[in-house]
Amino acid sequence: MIYPAKRTALLKECSSQSFCFPSQRSPAAKEEQGIKYQRNNTMLSQLYLSAGLVLHTLGSARPGHQESDAELLRRETLRLLEPAVEARMIVHETEWGVVSTISHQMPGVSFGNVLSFSDGPSGASSGRPFFYMRSDDPTAQDARSNSNASFAVTEAETDQCRQRHLDQEDPNCARLAIAGRLLEVPSAELHVAHEALFSRHPQMIDWPPNHHFVAFELHVDAIRMLDKYGPHIDISASDYYNVDFGRDSKA
Protein backbone atom coordinates (compact mmCIF):
# COMPACT_ATOMS: atom_id res chain seq x y z
CA MET A 1 0.00 0.00 0.00
CA ILE A 2 1.21 3.54 -0.79
CA TYR A 3 0.32 5.97 2.01
CA PRO A 4 -1.21 9.41 1.09
CA ALA A 5 1.88 11.52 1.89
CA LYS A 6 4.18 9.22 -0.05
CA ARG A 7 1.65 8.98 -2.88
CA THR A 8 1.61 12.80 -3.23
CA ALA A 9 5.40 12.82 -3.44
CA LEU A 10 5.37 10.04 -6.00
CA LEU A 11 2.82 11.85 -8.16
CA LYS A 12 5.07 14.91 -8.25
CA GLU A 13 8.08 12.76 -9.09
CA CYS A 14 6.18 10.77 -11.70
CA SER A 15 4.77 13.76 -13.55
CA SER A 16 7.76 13.73 -15.90
CA GLN A 17 8.84 10.10 -15.60
CA SER A 18 7.79 7.06 -17.61
CA PHE A 19 8.96 4.30 -15.29
CA CYS A 20 6.32 4.76 -12.57
CA PHE A 21 3.42 2.41 -12.12
CA PRO A 22 0.38 3.70 -14.07
CA SER A 23 -1.62 4.20 -10.86
CA GLN A 24 1.13 6.47 -9.53
CA ARG A 25 1.26 8.86 -12.49
CA SER A 26 -0.42 12.24 -12.63
CA PRO A 27 -3.28 12.71 -15.15
CA ALA A 28 -0.98 14.76 -17.40
CA ALA A 29 1.72 12.08 -17.28
CA LYS A 30 -0.84 9.36 -18.00
CA GLU A 31 -2.13 11.25 -21.05
CA GLU A 32 1.40 11.85 -22.35
CA GLN A 33 2.34 8.20 -21.80
CA GLY A 34 -0.84 7.09 -23.57
CA ILE A 35 0.07 9.17 -26.63
CA LYS A 36 3.59 7.71 -26.62
CA TYR A 37 2.21 4.17 -26.29
CA GLN A 38 -0.23 4.69 -29.16
CA ARG A 39 2.52 6.13 -31.36
CA ASN A 40 4.93 3.30 -30.54
CA ASN A 41 2.23 0.69 -31.07
CA THR A 42 1.45 2.11 -34.52
CA MET A 43 5.14 2.11 -35.44
CA LEU A 44 5.54 -1.50 -34.27
CA SER A 45 2.49 -2.58 -36.28
CA GLN A 46 3.90 -0.95 -39.41
CA LEU A 47 7.28 -2.57 -38.77
CA TYR A 48 5.77 -6.03 -38.35
CA LEU A 49 3.63 -5.61 -41.46
CA SER A 50 6.65 -4.51 -43.49
CA ALA A 51 8.70 -7.41 -42.15
CA GLY A 52 5.87 -9.78 -43.01
CA LEU A 53 5.80 -8.58 -46.62
CA VAL A 54 9.58 -8.86 -46.97
CA LEU A 55 9.72 -12.33 -45.41
CA HIS A 56 6.50 -13.61 -46.96
CA THR A 57 8.26 -16.03 -49.30
CA LEU A 58 10.61 -17.59 -46.77
CA GLY A 59 10.21 -21.17 -45.59
CA SER A 60 8.92 -22.09 -42.16
CA ALA A 61 9.73 -24.50 -39.37
CA ARG A 62 9.70 -28.22 -39.88
CA PRO A 63 10.12 -30.70 -37.04
CA GLY A 64 13.84 -31.19 -36.49
CA HIS A 65 14.70 -28.12 -38.57
CA GLN A 66 16.72 -25.34 -36.90
CA GLU A 67 14.96 -22.08 -37.71
CA SER A 68 16.94 -19.06 -38.83
CA ASP A 69 16.36 -15.64 -37.29
CA ALA A 70 14.50 -14.63 -40.47
CA GLU A 71 12.19 -17.64 -40.22
CA LEU A 72 11.43 -16.95 -36.57
CA LEU A 73 10.69 -13.30 -37.36
CA ARG A 74 8.39 -14.30 -40.21
CA ARG A 75 6.47 -16.69 -37.97
CA GLU A 76 6.02 -14.12 -35.21
CA THR A 77 4.98 -11.50 -37.78
CA LEU A 78 2.27 -13.70 -39.27
CA ARG A 79 1.04 -14.69 -35.81
CA LEU A 80 0.36 -11.03 -35.02
CA LEU A 81 -1.83 -10.56 -38.08
CA GLU A 82 -4.65 -13.07 -37.69
CA PRO A 83 -5.44 -16.07 -35.43
CA ALA A 84 -6.63 -18.09 -38.44
CA VAL A 85 -3.21 -17.60 -40.05
CA GLU A 86 -1.49 -18.96 -36.96
CA ALA A 87 -3.84 -21.95 -36.87
CA ARG A 88 -3.10 -22.77 -40.50
CA MET A 89 0.64 -22.44 -39.88
CA ILE A 90 0.50 -24.82 -36.92
CA VAL A 91 -1.49 -27.39 -38.91
CA HIS A 92 0.96 -27.21 -41.79
CA GLU A 93 4.11 -27.30 -39.68
CA THR A 94 3.13 -30.28 -37.54
CA GLU A 95 3.05 -33.89 -38.74
CA TRP A 96 1.13 -35.82 -36.10
CA GLY A 97 -1.58 -35.27 -33.53
CA VAL A 98 -4.25 -36.99 -31.46
CA VAL A 99 -7.58 -37.82 -33.10
CA SER A 100 -10.44 -38.47 -30.69
CA THR A 101 -13.59 -40.25 -31.77
CA ILE A 102 -16.68 -41.67 -30.08
CA SER A 103 -15.93 -45.35 -29.62
CA HIS A 104 -18.45 -47.80 -31.02
CA GLN A 105 -16.64 -50.69 -29.31
CA MET A 106 -16.88 -49.03 -25.89
CA PRO A 107 -20.16 -47.08 -26.04
CA GLY A 108 -20.08 -43.69 -24.37
CA VAL A 109 -16.28 -43.59 -24.20
CA SER A 110 -14.04 -41.29 -26.24
CA PHE A 111 -11.09 -42.94 -27.98
CA GLY A 112 -7.85 -41.04 -28.64
CA ASN A 113 -5.36 -42.20 -31.24
CA VAL A 114 -1.97 -40.77 -32.24
CA LEU A 115 -1.96 -40.41 -36.03
CA SER A 116 0.33 -38.95 -38.67
CA PHE A 117 -1.30 -36.41 -40.96
CA SER A 118 -0.63 -33.82 -43.64
CA ASP A 119 -2.49 -30.85 -45.08
CA GLY A 120 -0.32 -30.74 -48.20
CA PRO A 121 3.26 -30.94 -49.46
CA SER A 122 5.74 -28.74 -47.61
CA GLY A 123 5.09 -25.12 -48.56
CA ALA A 124 1.66 -25.86 -50.05
CA SER A 125 -0.80 -25.62 -47.18
CA SER A 126 -4.41 -26.53 -47.98
CA GLY A 127 -5.69 -26.56 -44.40
CA ARG A 128 -7.23 -29.99 -45.08
CA PRO A 129 -5.89 -32.57 -42.57
CA PHE A 130 -5.52 -35.95 -44.28
CA PHE A 131 -4.89 -39.23 -42.43
CA TYR A 132 -3.86 -42.71 -43.56
CA MET A 133 -4.89 -45.71 -41.48
CA ARG A 134 -5.82 -49.33 -41.76
CA SER A 135 -9.42 -50.00 -42.64
CA ASP A 136 -9.84 -51.90 -39.37
CA ASP A 137 -8.13 -49.24 -37.24
CA PRO A 138 -10.39 -48.36 -34.27
CA THR A 139 -10.45 -44.70 -35.36
CA ALA A 140 -11.54 -45.64 -38.88
CA GLN A 141 -14.26 -47.90 -37.50
CA ASP A 142 -15.44 -45.20 -35.12
CA ALA A 143 -15.55 -42.62 -37.92
CA ARG A 144 -17.73 -44.87 -40.06
CA SER A 145 -20.11 -45.29 -37.14
CA ASN A 146 -20.06 -41.63 -36.03
CA SER A 147 -18.01 -39.13 -38.02
CA ASN A 148 -17.85 -36.52 -35.24
CA ALA A 149 -14.22 -36.17 -34.16
CA SER A 150 -11.74 -33.79 -32.60
CA PHE A 151 -8.09 -33.35 -33.45
CA ALA A 152 -5.43 -31.94 -31.11
CA VAL A 153 -2.08 -30.62 -32.36
CA THR A 154 0.62 -28.69 -30.55
CA GLU A 155 3.41 -26.38 -31.59
CA ALA A 156 5.62 -28.37 -29.20
CA GLU A 157 6.41 -30.55 -32.23
CA THR A 158 8.36 -27.70 -33.79
CA ASP A 159 11.45 -25.76 -32.74
CA GLN A 160 9.19 -22.82 -31.87
CA CYS A 161 8.70 -24.12 -28.31
CA ARG A 162 11.96 -26.03 -27.89
CA GLN A 163 14.12 -23.01 -28.68
CA ARG A 164 12.26 -21.01 -26.03
CA HIS A 165 12.50 -23.91 -23.53
CA LEU A 166 8.73 -23.98 -23.08
CA ASP A 167 6.94 -26.88 -21.47
CA GLN A 168 4.42 -28.53 -23.78
CA GLU A 169 1.60 -27.32 -21.53
CA ASP A 170 2.81 -23.72 -21.36
CA PRO A 171 0.08 -21.55 -22.95
CA ASN A 172 2.77 -19.77 -24.99
CA CYS A 173 3.39 -23.08 -26.73
CA ALA A 174 0.37 -22.86 -29.02
CA ARG A 175 -2.10 -25.71 -29.34
CA LEU A 176 -5.23 -26.35 -31.37
CA ALA A 177 -8.37 -28.36 -30.70
CA ILE A 178 -10.08 -28.89 -34.04
CA ALA A 179 -13.64 -30.20 -34.21
CA GLY A 180 -15.09 -31.66 -37.37
CA ARG A 181 -16.24 -34.72 -39.29
CA LEU A 182 -13.78 -37.49 -40.10
CA LEU A 183 -14.78 -38.90 -43.48
CA GLU A 184 -13.21 -41.32 -45.93
CA VAL A 185 -11.69 -39.54 -48.92
CA PRO A 186 -13.72 -40.22 -52.11
CA SER A 187 -11.91 -41.84 -55.03
CA ALA A 188 -12.03 -38.60 -57.06
CA GLU A 189 -9.82 -36.88 -54.47
CA LEU A 190 -7.52 -39.73 -53.49
CA HIS A 191 -4.69 -38.27 -55.58
CA VAL A 192 -4.85 -35.07 -53.50
CA ALA A 193 -4.78 -36.98 -50.22
CA HIS A 194 -1.98 -39.30 -51.36
CA GLU A 195 0.19 -36.43 -52.59
CA ALA A 196 -0.24 -34.61 -49.27
CA LEU A 197 0.45 -37.70 -47.17
CA PHE A 198 3.22 -39.38 -49.14
CA SER A 199 5.20 -36.16 -49.64
CA ARG A 200 5.41 -35.62 -45.88
CA HIS A 201 5.42 -39.27 -44.78
CA PRO A 202 7.29 -41.16 -47.53
CA GLN A 203 7.35 -44.37 -45.47
CA MET A 204 3.61 -44.67 -46.08
CA ILE A 205 4.26 -45.47 -49.74
CA ASP A 206 5.76 -48.82 -48.75
CA TRP A 207 3.12 -49.84 -46.24
CA PRO A 208 1.77 -53.27 -47.30
CA PRO A 209 -1.28 -53.10 -49.61
CA ASN A 210 -2.83 -56.17 -47.98
CA HIS A 211 -3.25 -54.15 -44.78
CA HIS A 212 -5.87 -52.10 -46.62
CA PHE A 213 -4.87 -48.55 -45.70
CA VAL A 214 -7.52 -45.91 -46.28
CA ALA A 215 -7.27 -42.12 -46.52
CA PHE A 216 -9.50 -39.96 -44.33
CA GLU A 217 -10.00 -36.21 -44.14
CA LEU A 218 -11.10 -34.15 -41.17
CA HIS A 219 -13.66 -31.64 -42.44
CA VAL A 220 -13.14 -28.73 -40.05
CA ASP A 221 -16.19 -27.25 -38.35
CA ALA A 222 -14.56 -25.14 -35.62
CA ILE A 223 -11.20 -24.49 -33.99
CA ARG A 224 -10.24 -23.48 -30.48
CA MET A 225 -6.70 -22.14 -30.09
CA LEU A 226 -4.65 -21.34 -27.00
CA ASP A 227 -1.42 -19.49 -27.79
CA LYS A 228 -0.87 -17.21 -24.80
CA TYR A 229 -1.89 -16.61 -21.21
CA GLY A 230 -5.53 -15.66 -21.17
CA PRO A 231 -8.70 -16.98 -22.75
CA HIS A 232 -8.68 -19.26 -25.77
CA ILE A 233 -9.51 -18.01 -29.26
CA ASP A 234 -12.37 -19.47 -31.30
CA ILE A 235 -11.74 -19.60 -35.05
CA SER A 236 -14.48 -20.29 -37.57
CA ALA A 237 -14.03 -22.86 -40.30
CA SER A 238 -14.54 -20.21 -42.99
CA ASP A 239 -11.78 -17.98 -41.58
CA TYR A 240 -9.48 -20.99 -41.32
CA TYR A 241 -10.06 -22.26 -44.85
CA ASN A 242 -9.98 -18.78 -46.41
CA VAL A 243 -6.41 -18.02 -45.31
CA ASP A 244 -4.35 -17.26 -48.42
CA PHE A 245 -0.58 -17.38 -48.02
CA GLY A 246 -0.03 -16.28 -51.60
CA ARG A 247 0.97 -18.31 -54.61
CA ASP A 248 4.70 -18.13 -53.92
CA SER A 249 4.62 -18.22 -50.14
CA LYS A 250 5.67 -21.03 -47.86
CA ALA A 251 3.01 -21.60 -45.25
Automatic annotation (TrEMBL):
One of its GO terms (cellular component) is cytoplasm. Residues 82-242 form the CREG-like beta-barrel domain. Gene3D superfamilies: Electron Transport, Fmn-binding Protein, Chain A. This is CREG-like beta-barrel domain-containing protein.
